[in-house]
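Q: Joint fold for the lines below.
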Amino acid sequence: MATLQEFRTGEKSWWCPGCGDFGVLTAMQKALVAVGASPDTTAIVAGIGCSGKIGNYINSYNIHVTHGRALPAALGLKLANRDLTVLVAGGDGDAYAIGMGHFMHALRRNYNVTYIVMDNHVYGLTKGQTSPTSEEGFKTKTTPQGSIERPIHPLMLAVSAGATFVAQGFSSWQPQLAHLIQKGIEHPGFSLINVISPCVTYNKVNTYDWYKKTLKNLDEQSGYQPNDRSTALATLHQTEELVTGLIYQEETTPYEDLIPGFSQTPLVKQDPHVDPETWNKILATLE
Amino acid sequence: MATLQEFRTGEKSWWCPGCGDFGVLTAMQKALVAVGASPDTTAIVAGIGCSGKIGNYINSYNIHVTHGRALPAALGLKLANRDLTVLVAGGDGDAYAIGMGHFMHALRRNYNVTYIVMDNHVYGLTKGQTSPTSEEGFKTKTTPQGSIERPIHPLMLAVSAGATFVAQGFSSWQPQLAHLIQKGIEHPGFSLINVISPCVTYNKVNTYDWYKKTLKNLDEQSGYQPNDRSTALATLHQTEELVTGLIYQEETTPYEDLIPGFSQTPLVKQDPHVDPETWNKILATLE
Amino acid sequence: MLAWKIGGDQGEGIDSTGDVLATVANRMGYYVYGYKHFSSRIRGGHTNYKVRIATSRVEATTRRTDILVALNQETIDRNVHELEGGLILADESFSPVLPEGADAHLLTLPLTNIARSLGSIMMRNMVAVGASAALIQLPLDAFVDYVTVKFEKKGEAVVNANREAVTTGYQRVIDEYRALLTFKLGDPSRGDRLVITGNDAIALGAIAGGCRLMYGYPITPATEIMEALVRWFPSVGGAVVQMEDELGSITAVIGAGFAGARAMTSSSGPGISLMQEAMGLASVAEIPAVIVDTQRGGPSTGMPTKQEQSDLLALLHGGHGDTLRVVLTPGSVEECFEDAVEAFNLAEQFQTPVIIATDLSLALWKQSVERKSLNGPNVSIRKGSTLSPEDLLALGENVFQRYQFSPDGISPRSLPGEKNGQYLATGVEHGPSGKVSEDPANRERMMNKRLTKLLGVAAIRDGFRYEGPDHPELILVGIGSTVGILREALHHLRGQVGLGWFRTLSPFPVDRVQSVLAPAKHIMVVEQNALGQIRQLMAAHGVSDDRFTSYLKYDGVPFLPEEVVTRAMSLLSPVEVH
Amino acid sequence: MLAWKIGGDQGEGIDSTGDVLATVANRMGYYVYGYKHFSSRIRGGHTNYKVRIATSRVEATTRRTDILVALNQETIDRNVHELEGGLILADESFSPVLPEGADAHLLTLPLTNIARSLGSIMMRNMVAVGASAALIQLPLDAFVDYVTVKFEKKGEAVVNANREAVTTGYQRVIDEYRALLTFKLGDPSRGDRLVITGNDAIALGAIAGGCRLMYGYPITPATEIMEALVRWFPSVGGAVVQMEDELGSITAVIGAGFAGARAMTSSSGPGISLMQEAMGLASVAEIPAVIVDTQRGGPSTGMPTKQEQSDLLALLHGGHGDTLRVVLTPGSVEECFEDAVEAFNLAEQFQTPVIIATDLSLALWKQSVERKSLNGPNVSIRKGSTLSPEDLLALGENVFQRYQFSPDGISPRSLPGEKNGQYLATGVEHGPSGKVSEDPANRERMMNKRLTKLLGVAAIRDGFRYEGPDHPELILVGIGSTVGILREALHHLRGQVGLGWFRTLSPFPVDRVQSVLAPAKHIMVVEQNALGQIRQLMAAHGVSDDRFTSYLKYDGVPFLPEEVVTRAMSLLSPVEVH
Ligand SMILES: Cc1ncc(C[n+]2csc(CCOP(=O)(O)OP(=O)(O)O)c2C)c(N)n1
Ligand SMILES: Cc1ncc(C[n+]2csc(CCOP(=O)(O)OP(=O)(O)O)c2C)c(N)n1
Ligand code: SF4
Ligand code: SF4
Ligand SMILES: [Mg+2]
Ligand SMILES: [Mg+2]
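A: Joint structure:
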């Protein structure tokens, strides 16, 4: 069993002091420890953004891809070696702007990876522009008079799109967040955890204080059952997604188990050669 | 007032005899006549697919773009000349596979164009592969043992994403379809009309007969009020989207009216030069 | 040598009819080559399928047609100029007319009526097949056997009706047109051959080369690679995922490559353009990836069903920033198989994206290929430099230096799942450990490492091949499907003419090109694009002087060997033309 | 000439401090040039800002620093080598140490403490500004005036505190270090100048050129163009849309271009790679579009905050299929303005995408520019060939031939909204009316039409500029920000050395390049990339012989004029070096 320390790289962080991403990092590391993962069998795919730098700080196999494409990379990785624990991380711009198409298709494909979106309602790395989750009226360098677009509600979209695991955490609420990530990893299909992770430099509206005042914690609300799509949608609608906890989960079989003939042994462990008998059968289809 | 005839190009169709797209074409032409549009002030943006060829047959300003990108082209067009009636058309692959990201963002942007998705649950032009709306188990050249992905439910997604006009038509039910397109054009924001348009060559499951048996017509169901998001979602959920009619509409102000300082006169009608006073004000910000 | 063609409307089964003829002739020991003319539409619109049948290898199409089976008048009108005295077999039902001045014999048979009388007009093409067999003087049995197996699953009634259709067509020709049966094909040669396309060969090569993942998105003329793997992968435990777009496809391939599986994607121009950004990631993060570009008429949607070789510069230079890419260019169906296997080897050995560039003609047209040239189980697989578990463990507390500098620029890699091998693969510039680095000196070294490493490809692969005399007066230079066309042209050019073709376009095999071309008096670069992309590339590498001329074609139609011969003759000194 | 630098951690206001100095010095009539060193992170990490102040135009940075303001020890350690006897002004709070062997004078002031005593340590940098003013011997008043206006909106207390900060810093230097005040800048020259970047100039040029729509997605170092237009467009009725990605941005620009509005997008490498497919659409459908590529270190995410010129080949050849693209390469901030205006003219005149390629240095570094060189209201706007309403009506029942063939390849267009002008614009190959066509003859003509049309750009634009002697021994060839560096190098090379630079990279101005370079004995192509992309391009166009050498740099750091001088000297014959 690996320890928290073993999941650290010791590299000095490039994040601003106070950034929400520190909390996401710690929660991910705790969750990895909790599920009994080990650094060598863990793979983390990250997108581009302040958030995307998270892979630099977790001792594991890390791949830092192009902006918006973390999810397809994770699909490739998972099918190549289905024994790996695969986590995917990125920002709200990475996930819901340039990455929106892949996000919707990952949900319907339901392959077994855990997607952690570090949502700060702003573009951090490019120094403060409006993001798809920015609220209407949010002022940035690209919308100095306030955003005029309806914000994306990622959780509602995920539930509507047929997701099998949908949760939201807050980087300041460590135990809940770590637990949600742990459950996401344990879920045998695609799990989405949208994490409120404040940007202290470019978002002066959706601050820690603001969230502490407005966020509702489902865990404190006795009786919430996360197994019904309509209840989940209604809850998200009522709270305007200002809610943390496990919102929806269903029993499921992951994509990789449904692919006809797909090997249960990780592909990377197989002999790459084709055997003569199979080969002749294949050629026979061309005769 | 233009006549139906004036909206025809007379070009010989490239579609298979019996293709649902013929009905979509006619309904679009009827709707254009009904709203009093004229060919010279109508612009049609089409994607790539059998569906995307629709522009060849409508006498209007037509632009046939790259696969999946009809919506951003329409945004460009509309802001360039806001007096135009802008229709956008494409297939289910064009809209919901490669075009998914733009689709979600067009919904939240709510600019005033009408999007007609010609949905046949299959890739027609590339000769019959699975599409994002193909049902689970649907067999094609790429899923000979049946599709294993959850189908996209475009209407639910649209309603969840904050769309202001969502409808579904059936290419065989002409009066309703033409009427829905007409209402979409009249709606002062983004309108989505998903149209069931059977592919007689590559989809032997979701046929005209199959739809005639399974589709429920909201117009025949007295009392349905398309002004409530939750009712809309519930209806779509219950019917598994096998329903036609106006599903949701709200009063709205289009994007182009919300852009700070954006000209009410079409840009193409303005003097491109900048006047000296404005210029000096701009330079002053750099002093 | 004989050229047979069938033509009609799209959606009328022209394809499968041509396939029957090609398959049966191949089985009998003839060499076949099939060429289809089709449009970007599903039904309607003229389509035709030409099959050349010969007693030796054939890998191009020529102008002449000996027998034209016409299912409508348009077919006659559009193709009659190819006949030069040949036969037209037309369906009586459309009252065929021979255009004025046509140099052809018109035979008619009531193809539709015969089919109808046998139960379904769907069998019209089978009647035509039987009639064609008689005209070509191929034995009826072989066709009857073929349909018996082909329709087996559909039940005895269908089998019998189709046998009847073929037989009737055959018999009617024998009965009515015996006098015209003058074609002599010559004796078939023994051998075990398959009739396959370049796309088939690539899919086969991928399987043989250990590829078990394919992420793709449909597009003409690449789709068949994905579709073939969908059929074949279940038997080897692999998976094909139809992605939401090509951005997703290439990135999934990169994810798989990072994890250590052999993965690929295939597309054509529009999809390849979308992959440009991610290919740069694979280059910088040194991740193997195999990408097939089956070129078609561009730019943009262009001419999606037409032949062209116009993505070459984009394959080399399409992404932002400084990279070298490995671009393999097979010049035959057999080379498609070889290069598909090799692409996976090179990708892992050099830890880099490898592109296989084919073109529509090479990708889609079927031809006879020796079974022994498709020896899947026996290909050699080179996994490239990896650290052993022992090496990794020996690192102890030290961080694994994934990108450590080395003389050949190649650094051993570790794969996820291996103890102690954790590292960061990133598209951001990084130091030897993988950690992001903005240090100028490191940047320069890393850039040199990546660029020089790829020059190693030239050391292990002959990138420019040559066939011909030692002291050629003229060398024809080709690529892709053009190579087969030039080879056929060579048969008709008895002078001192040689053929040079690219097997590796990048890294550019400059030394080899220079030495091969050195003795030639003239060099004609034959390419199917408007910009003369190969010429430009040669010039950019200093291979250019006044011996060079270009022969370009960009109207969507392949070169004909005859055209090449004419053009070549104009360069050769008169005494040497026989 | 004097070089001042301030350094500290990112997020500590280094940028705005440098800007104050540059702005005030410029207002006083000096020419300034600012250069920033920064990383891809928001806070933390060393950053510095160097401002050169001179009495004549300056457009490059050099090695030497005269005055270094250090806010931490790292700043001293990293930059002390530039000082060559200059001064370091350091904050006492970190107990600064002069490294052993350093050739510099260390002065200290309690910057932080002074600021704290005035109410907030946020004002530390203002104290440093005041101290710098004294060291450079610039009048205090000008700085006091500046902060008075700058902080006006924040109320009197803030204004007073900042005035106090500047004044105290100034006075402390005068009091404590009077003996060291030996710098003499010389007299400023009259003139009305603004301190702006290439990005500013492009945004200004876009507005002047009639652009009213910008579709963009943030990316370093292009974002400022979008952000400037967000600020300025409301006053001219335009709109900026922050799109979901670059695929959307470019396609929206094309939609707008089809409709007849002038629209643009801007990005850097990764975004440009994503635009490759759509640029082909604009080429084939003949739709105007303007795209700015502010190049940075590639490939992939590469070195996002570092200088490079490595997208050039991708800009020319990145898309699939045969196209020529118009690529403009401004070599100064003023040329950025000119070329932005001209890009919209060329895009509409030639109905094609036009790319403006700059680079990080040109895009981000501020310099003094004459106001009269930014004459927005007076630029000429050419809308290109369109049909008049009368012409359209005169068509009667005839279909408008949008793509009709013409001698120069340009066909008049109609705009949506115009009666009788309806047509189909498509990326599929089409005939003169716009309707899809697969006819080979039409294909060839259409391809020729599109390619030859663009050669017309060369006729109206001088694509390669030259400055220098008529009979140069050496010509330095540059592009983008390198041009300013080479120009500065020229001042130090008294031999027969000239400067040639590209204003149009494509269509390649081959005749002009050849004639300019003809008299030179040596040609040194100076480019900031690893592959020698401009050299390759020149060679591809037959411009290459043994007079050519390359000087490449790809470590993320701009060339220094001194480095160019050294390299150039090695080529010049000894007698001519003075
Ligand atoms: C194709 C491409 N476009 C744009 C960029 C520039 N870019 C880097 S990060 C980023 C967005 C950052 O926002 P988000 O995803 O919310 O991450 P955060 O920094 O807020 O964590 C952008 C636009 C890029 N790297 N690649
Ligand atoms: C970038 C790109 N990828 C792939 C293609 C090939 N392609 C053309 S149409 C199409 C999908 C057609 O399906 P759909 O959108 O449902 O339209 P339909 O033909 O069914 O009307 C594809 C994949 C393309 N043209 N461009
Ligand atoms: S800019 Fe915002 S998101 Fe980025 S590191 Fe700083 S606080 Fe975090
Ligand atoms: S293939 Fe299907 S969608 Fe395409 S034209 Fe034929 S019937 Fe219509
Ligand atoms: Mg963010
Ligand atoms: Mg479809």
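Q: Anything notable?
A: The radius of gyration of chain B is 20 Å. Chain B touches chain C at residues 14-17, 48, 50, 64, 66-68, 97-98, 100, 123-127, 129-130, 132, 141-144, 201 (CB under 8 Å).
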